[in-house]
Amino acid sequence: MNKLKKQLTEKIQKLTGEPKTVARSFAMGSFIGVSPLIGMQIMLSILLAGIFRLSKTAAVVGVVNTNWTKGLFLYPFNYKLGAWLLGINQSINIAGLFTGNVFKNLSNAGSEVFISLLIGGCITGSIIASIYYFLILKILKQKKSLTIKTEKTMNNSEKKYALLTGASQGIGKAMAHELASRKINLLLVSLKGECLADFCQEIQEKYGVDARYFETDFSQYNSVYDVANWAIPDYPVYILINNAGIGGTKAFDSVSPEYIDNIIQVNVRATSLLTRLLLPELKKQESAYILNVASMASFSPFAFKTVYPASKAFIYSFSRGLHEELKGTNVFVSVIHPGPVKTNAEVTARILKQGVFGRMGQVSPEKLARIAIRQLMVRDSLILPGVLNKINWLLMAILPNAWKLPILSRVVRKEINACQPAGLKLSIIKN
Length: 431
Prior knowledge:
By secondary structure, the chain is an alpha/beta fold. It folds into 2 domains: 145 residues, no CATH class; 262 residues, NAD(P)-binding Rossmann-like Domain (Rossmann fold, 3-Layer(aba) Sandwich), CATH 3.40.50. Helix content is 61%, strand content 8%. The protein has 16 helices and 7 strands. A 7-stranded parallel beta sheet has the order 3-2-1-4-5-6-7, sandwiched between helices. It starts with a helix and ends in an 18-residue tail after the last helix. The C terminus is likely disordered.
């Protein structure tokens, strides 16, 4: 029972929106889901959610949750309840009607069977919907309370800092604004020559928080140690966001060994090593957070991006493993998987060259930052920003590599026309 409650709680906490609206939507879906023929019920729930301005996602989750977890039990019970009220035969094998051609079976069974199922379903559906409404409202209010409490904790942490790498542009810059708007002091890390000093000054003047910076290149061996030695003695760090990363689109045999080494150094080594170096400091805090920025590319290999998705798959695996390892401690670990993000001119050109498939799941850096920090605060360990990215993630999980690899590789091949010549210096892009 506790396991089922935990699973339900996890489902509900991923739903966004005003608690009462989400609870009503889920309850409506649960009511509809009591009846069979799940495909029709999903369409009906989406239609009604649109008409009554409810959450379509919550309604569909309600349908699926009720239909898949309780359907086999509910159908016979609904029939017996309805048949008893109508005073007709209760001994029909209802379960047998839902094997094979359901429409034909129900048609042959007669109108009394259908009406009995309908009446019984309305009664049990009303009871289940009412229970779910109050239960989900309670779960969402607890979540909201936790969010407010976490925000207060963060906002009251005047002497504590969030350390953010890759902070000078794109996602990192947007995250810096989002954190500062929540009155969180910042330690910003990025490459030299990216106006980080001016950005810190802007942050301090606009938001009234302390902002310090450190310029380094994570492709250099000692750079991660330099950042840790700078931060740990003087600044109590309670949020670590590993955002810096290198990407690109080139044929593997056309790039230099240094190109490959840089991707591994920045994406893999810097993330894991900086996390290890800062972990003792994070454990000293009352509550601490680690957010690693992966990519939707981590869920599938690509041609012409051979090393990048592999490095992001490492970030995903590393983050999930560390999250499990640090359960029960004061340190919470999360990972976010952005889709295409127009972080700079080069990346924008590559996204546009990919066509419609390349732009699927695209989220602006500002929106992505809001989602990332909000979900980190509510302790969401796996963040998939946007509905399309959630659908993409599901497709990635379902489709075999033999199908998705050729399709995705054809899309990525289009980027090559937008890439700069291989001889130009590799640039750091903020995921």
